[in-house]
Every structure is written in C-alpha cells, then in structure tokens.
Sequence to fold (115 residues):
Amino acid sequence: MAPSLDIVFAALADPTRRAILSMLLEDDMAVSDVASAFPMSLAAVSKHLQALAEAGLISQEKRGRITWCKLEPDALREGSVWMQGFGMMEAFDLDAFERFLERELTDPDAARPPD
Fold:
C-alpha cells in the first residue's frame, strides 16, 4: 500500500529531508555519508531518514555493517499527478510551495479579496 499524500508532503516539508533527497539523486549513499553532510547528530539524521522511509521516498538496505539509502522516485508520482490537476505541468519548486502554504496557513485572510 502506497503512503498517503499527507505523509509524503509532510516528509517533503522539511528542508533537510529535501536536501537528503537531492543528495540521493546522484547515487545510493551510506547513512554515515548522508549524516556527514549535515551539522547535526547521526541520531537526528536517522530520524529524517526514517521519516523519508515511512513516506516511501527512500528505501534502506543493510549490506554488512553499513546501511545504505536509495531514492524511490516513484513515491513522488501520486503527488505529481495531484499537483498536475492544478495545472502545474512544469517542474515544481517545493521551496516556493512551502512558502505559499506557510503564508496561507498563517494568514488565511491574505488570499481573501477585500469586501
């Protein structure tokens, strides 16, 4: 069963997780290599990786003593289809989408036309 869009978008809402996904676009990476790219503890990075795995955006595989992370791009397909329903056929800027949602959620009157 595929993760819900809510779980996928919640995972994508964090800039660290988006950065991890960008890193995994290049190639599979060991957890320790992912962690070395961020100024946080291995435990903190592991929590981000767990959130991405729960959303189905990455998979993790133990090879010997090393856990490897692999991007699972098909997990984005349902979200992409959903966004295309709004006429967003071009590449989607998730950072801009996050800023838009933040504005809408913090000030719901901002989008309302004047009376």
Remarks:
- Helices lie at 5-12, 15-26, 31-36, 42-54, 77-84, 94-106.
